Amino acid sequence: MTKKMSINLMENPGASSEVSMFGEGWSQRIHGLHSRAKLRSTLAGRIKNKAKMKAVMVILVITFFISCTTNSPQEINEATDKSLELELSKPADLSNEQIEDKMSTGYVTVNDQELYYEVHGTGEPLILICGLSMDLTAHMAYLPILSEQFQVIIFDNRDAGRSSKAKSPYTIADMAEDTVGLMDALGLESAHVLGGSMGGTIAQELAIRYPDRVNKLILSATISKATLTLDSFTTLMKFIKKHDQNNEIIPLMTLLTTMTVSFSENEEMVKQIIGMSKNPPYPQSFDALARQVEAILGFDALDRLPMIKAPTLVLAADQDILTPPSEARKIEAAIPGAELQILEGGGHGFMFEISEKSNKAIIEFLNK
């Protein structure tokens, strides 16, 4: 049942030791990045300090592992080589003009957290759940289109954006409970749910725990189980804190790991993304980021995915090196009746990078 609504309401261990922790075969996977030489050259120009450049590459290696990548070195090489041949797709506009026409905004208290939310458009309710470290402005690429047909509810997860900061560790299940609490506060008996990356793990928990609350489910660029150890992440966080005093590494890592090479070579878009990343209106602290990552590290829904009853669309991109198509295939195989679409020409951030393709897939699925 759907319901329409109108609301007024880490120490420096050295690069070699970090790489060795992945075991045999990881050097081959990293070799797949060699075709990104031009992009690395650009990074070197932006990061003059050698220690910082070293940190970038260390983080890149660990980022592969945290994403539970299961594809082969050949798959990574093929995806990277293919990306070099693509013409740059028209990306979403980065301006805020698209998201200024808010229907309503407010805060709700859920599980001792203050969650900031916005509601856009009218129609069947559709909840969008943010990924790691993201606030609700991450939805700008598809919010204007989706809100033309649906009543779109977006919100900041705990420890992000304008929502409150947690006082203790929590789990992905806790974040799913936050989403249900928001639905309760807004009077929503059920809704369509779209979760991307970490948001996809939250959406899985929500659909498993509350099958009657999810009408249709869209899982985008996500995983069903995490594998990185907490000790490895703690080391990573200490390293970043030591070498990224000016917030230079993470914005550049975003480009390296979430966008295709073609997109990353667009100087104007690179400047805009780095500018937004280095000067966010609601910056996330390292402690908050650590709590969100710790939640991801404890996530494992693979064996429970058959419990999902909602019609499900699994979206992936052919050049996503963080959550590759192999992850999407595992999810699709485990959820009864799930559909899988692998979109061409995008990386982990494909809902921004090739938003026209992803918007089309989402709308067609929801309108079936």
Number of distinct beta strands: 8
Radius of gyration: 19 Å
CATH fold-level name of the largest domain = Rossmann fold
Proportion of residues in helical segments? 40-55%
What's the number of helices?
A: 16
Largest pleated sheet: 8 strands, mixed
Strand order of the largest sheet: 1-2-4-3-5-6-7-8
Average predicted local confidence, pLDDT = 73
Residue ranges: pLDDT <50 for 5 or more in a row?
1-44, 50-100
Structural class, by secondary structure, is alpha/beta
Question: Judging from the principal axes of the Cα atoms, what is the shape?
Answer: globular
Strand content: 5-15%
CATH superfamily of the largest domain: Alpha/Beta hydrolase fold, catalytic domain
The SSE string, one letter per element, is HHHHHEEEHEHEHEHHHHHEHEHH
Distance between the termini: 16 Å
Secondary structure layout:
Elements: H1 15-20, H2 26-31, H3 37-46, H4 50-66, H5 73-85, E1 104-110, E2 113-120, E3 124-129, H6 143-146, E4 150-155, H7 172-185, E5 191-196, H8 198-209, E6 214-220, H9 230-243, H10 249-258, H11 261-264, H12 267-278, H13 286-297, E7 312-317, H14 325-334, E8 339-343, H15 350-353, H16 355-366
Parallel strand pairs: 3-4, 3-5, 5-6, 6-7, 7-8
Antiparallel strand pairs: 1-2, 2-4
Helix pairs in contact: 4-9, 4-10, 7-8, 9-13, 10-12
Concise description?
This protein has 368 residues and is an alpha/beta fold. Helix content is 43%, strand content 14%.
Describe this protein's structure.
This protein has 368 residues and is an alpha/beta fold. The protein folds into two domains: 136 residues, no CATH class; 196 residues, Rossmann fold (3-Layer(aba) Sandwich), CATH 3.40.50.1820. 43% of the residues lie in helices and 14% in strands. The protein has 16 helices and eight strands. An eight-stranded mixed β-sheet has the order 1-2-4-3-5-6-7-8, with helices on both faces. Helix 6 links the parallel strand 3 and strand 4. The protein is globular. The chain starts with 14 loop residues before the first helix and ends with a helix. The relative contact order is 0.17. The N terminus is likely disordered.
